[in-house]
């Protein structure tokens, strides 16, 4: 089974509603009939590689990552500790934190990605589902990183919070 990273842009009011009634978030993310949500970004399986690219940490040592980029995927505040969105509860960042994250996102090109992952390979570290011998993997990560960066820029422009979860 795959672990898919997801980001959802929400207004302050929506965030307050989800904090009060977390089932509303589940209803939005998992509707009875599929409806494409322009505020939902599916990062596929690239999420952990992106996290490593930005923080130098994996999901297993995320407590060592430094803010604000440590907040980008799953180190925000927990929305509802009793809710399981697939692989645990959703986390969120306030609009102010989203701005900090967006401002800290570096311009990344293919060479940046390669050099980061050369160090990973030398440490024999593992990232889900990264395979450093697969040249297409760099394109895959770069594509999703670019989508994520644009996502955070829109959230900043619209003064939105971001909810993250893995399913």
Describe this structure in a few short sentences.
This protein has 167 residues and is of the alpha+beta class. The protein has helices spanning 12-20, 23-29, 47-55, 95-104, 110-122, 136-157, and strands at 5-10, 40-42, 77-78, 91-93, 161-166. The protein has one domain: Hypothetical protein yfbM fold.
Number of helices: 6
CATH homologous superfamily - what is it? YfbM-like super family
Oligomeric state: single chain
Distance between the terminal alpha carbons, to the nearest Å? 10 Å
Task: Determine the CATH topology.
Answer: Hypothetical protein yfbM fold
Low-confidence stretches: none
Helix content: 40-55%
**Strand order, biggest sheet?**
2-1-5-4-3
Order of helices and strands: EHHEHEEHHHE
Number of strands: 5
Estimate the mean pLDDT confidence: 88
Question: How are the secondary structure elements laid out?
Answer:
Elements: E1 5-10, H1 12-20, H2 23-29, E2 40-42, H3 47-55, E3 77-78, E4 91-93, H4 95-104, H5 110-122, H6 136-157, E5 161-166
Antiparallel strand pairs: 1-2, 1-5, 3-4, 4-5
Description:
With 167 residues, the protein is α+β, with helices and mostly antiparallel strands. The chain has one domain (5-30, 37-166): Hypothetical protein yfbM fold (3-Layer(aba) Sandwich). Helices cover 42% and strands 12% of the residues. It has helices at 12-20, 23-29, 47-55, 95-104, 110-122, 136-157; strands spanning 5-10, 40-42, 77-78, 91-93, 161-166. Helix 4 packs across helix 6 (136-157). The protein is globular and about 45 Å long. The mean pLDDT is 88.
């Amino acid at each position: 089974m795959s672990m898919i990273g997801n980001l959802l842009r929400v207004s302050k009011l929506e965030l307050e509603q989800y904090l009060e009634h977390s089932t509303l978030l589940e209803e939005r993310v998992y509707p009875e009939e599929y409806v494409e949500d322009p505020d939902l970004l599916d990062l596929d399986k690239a999420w952990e590689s992106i996290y490593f690219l930005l923080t130098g940490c994996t999901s297993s040592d995320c407590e060592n990552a430094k803010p604000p980029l440590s907040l980008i995927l799953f180190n925000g505040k927990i929305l509802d500790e009793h809710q399981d969105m697939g692989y645990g509860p959703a986390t969120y960042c306030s609009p102010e934190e989203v701005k900090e994250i967006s401002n800290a996102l570096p311009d990344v090109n293919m060479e940046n990605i390669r050099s980061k992952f050369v160090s990973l390979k030398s440490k024999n570290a593992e990232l889900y589902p990264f395979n450093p011998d697969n040249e297409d993997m760099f394109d895959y990560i770069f594509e999703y990183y670019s989508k994520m960066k644009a996502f955070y820029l829109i959230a900043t422009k619209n003064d939105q919070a971001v909810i993250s979860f893995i399913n």
